[in-house]
Amino acid sequence: MTRRRTLTIATFNVNGINARLSNLLAWLDYLKPDVVALQELKCEDAAFPREAIERQGYGAIWKGQRAWNGVALLARDAVPVESRRVLPGDASDRQSRYIEAAAHGIVIGGLYLPNGNPQPGPKFDDKLKWMARLHRHARTLVDLPHPAALIGDFNVIPSDLDVYDPAAWKKDALNQPEVRASYARLLEQGWTDALRSVFGSEQVFTFWDYFRQHAERDRGLRIDHLLLNPALATRLVEVGVDRWVRLEPGASDHAPVWMKIQR
DNA sequence: ATGACTCCCAAAGGGAGA
Fold first, then answer.
1. Is the CB of A66 under 7 A from strand B?
2. What local confidence, expressed as pLDDT, does residue A142 receive?
3. Is the CB of A219 under 7 A from strand B?
4. Chain B: nucleotides under 7 Å from a protein CB?
5. For strand B, is any atom closer than 7 Å to the CB of A153?
6. Which DSSP string do the residues of chain A spell out, in sequence order?
7. A193 is a catalytic site residue
8. Range of the domain at A248
9. Residue whose CA lies closest to nucleotide B17 C1'
10. Distance in angstroms: CA A112, C1' B16
11. Which nucleotide is nearest to A172 (CA to C1')?
C-alpha cells in the first residue's frame, strides 16, 4: 500500500452506531479516512461494535452511554492514544460528550455539544455552560506547537449562511445569538473553521432533518465543524461533505465532514 | 405547527434529537 501524501480527518454523527453500522462501514471503505470522530453512538460501552470496526482496519477508543450521546475516535491502522474522556470543569457531568486522543501525530478532541432545546430553559442554560467549559479547555490546545483539532457535532449554526431558512430556525437553540456569539469567541482564540475557510461565501450543509424530504431537497444546516489550531491550519489542503451518505437507505441525519491535511 | 421522522428502551408509548 502506498503511503498517501495527505491525512484525512473526519467527523460523523452516526445517530446510533449499531443501527447504522453497515452505512458507517461502507463510508469508511469508500473514503478510508485516517482519523474519525463519531458522535451519538447511542450504545453502552459493551455494545460498541469493536470487531467490525477493527476488521475494517481501524483501532478505536470510545465512551458510550445507555440510549443517548456517546463519542468515539477511530484511527486507520493504529489505536488512538487517549488523553481525555471528559471535558474538564464539571465533576457532576455524567454525559458522554467528549473524548480526546493523539492519532497520526495530531491531537484530536471529538465532541458532541448539547443540543440545548427547548430554549429558553435549563437545557439551553446547560448548553451555554458546556460551551464555556469548551472555551477554557480549547485555550490549552490552541497555542500548542503541536497540531490540534476540535471536531464534531457542535450543534451550532454559525451564521444565516449555514441554514436553509433562517426564519424557520429563529427560535431554535442551535441558532440563538448567544450561541453564535459563543462559537465566534471560540474561533477568536485562533481556531480555523475549516469548511468555512475553504467554501468562502458558498453554502454547504452537514445535517438535514428526516422530515419533508429535506435531504433530497438540500434543505439543511451546517452544524458539524472541523476547527484547526494554527499549527494545523497551515497544513489544510481540502475539505468536503460526503452528502451521498445522507441519501443512502437507513442513513443518519448527518453526513460525514472531512478535511485533508499535508503529512 | 403540541406537526413530521427515527433512534433508543422495551415491549407501548415516551424521551430525545435539531
1. yes
2. 98
3. no
4. 4-9, 15-18
5. yes
6. -PPPSEEEEEEEE-SSTTTTHHHHHHHHHHH--SEEEEE---S-GGGS-HHHHHHTTEEEEEE--SSS--EEEEEETS--EEEESS-SS-TT--S--EEEEEETTEEEEEEE-----SSSSHHHHHHHHHHHHHHHHHHHHHT-SS-EEEEEE-----SGGGBS-TTTTTTSGGG-HHHHHHHHHHHHTT-EEHHHHHHTTS---SB--SSTTTTTTT--B--EEEEE-HHHHTTEEEEEE-HHHHTSTT--SB--EEEEEE-
7. no
8. 6-262
9. A115
10. 14
11. B18
Does A161 fall in a domain? yes
| A102 lies in some domain | yes
Distance from residue A247's CA to nucleotide B13's C1', rounded to whole Å:
29
Nucleotide nearest to A169 (CA to C1'): B18
Q: Are residues A28 and A38 in contact, defined by beta-carbon separation less than 8 angstroms?
A: no
Count of structural domains, chain A? 1
- Inter-helix orientation angle A177-188/A122-142, to 10°: 10
Here the CATH number for the domain that contains residue A18 is 3.60.10.10
Catalytic site residue from A34, A153, A172, A224: A153
Q: How far is CA A237 from the centre of its chain?
A: 19
Is A104 labeled as catalytic in the residue annotation?
Answer: no
Nearest to A253 by CA among A205, A208, A217, A206: A208
Task: Provide the whole-model pTM.
Answer: 0.97
Low-confidence ranges of chain A (pLDDT < 70): 1-2
Q: In this predicted structure, what is the pLDDT of residue A4?
A: 87
Examine residue A156 and state whether it is found in any structural domain, yes or no: yes
**Minimum CA–C1' distance nucleotide for A19:** B7
- A1 within a domain of the structure (yes/no): no
CA dihedral A146, A150, A151, A154 (to 10 degrees): -170
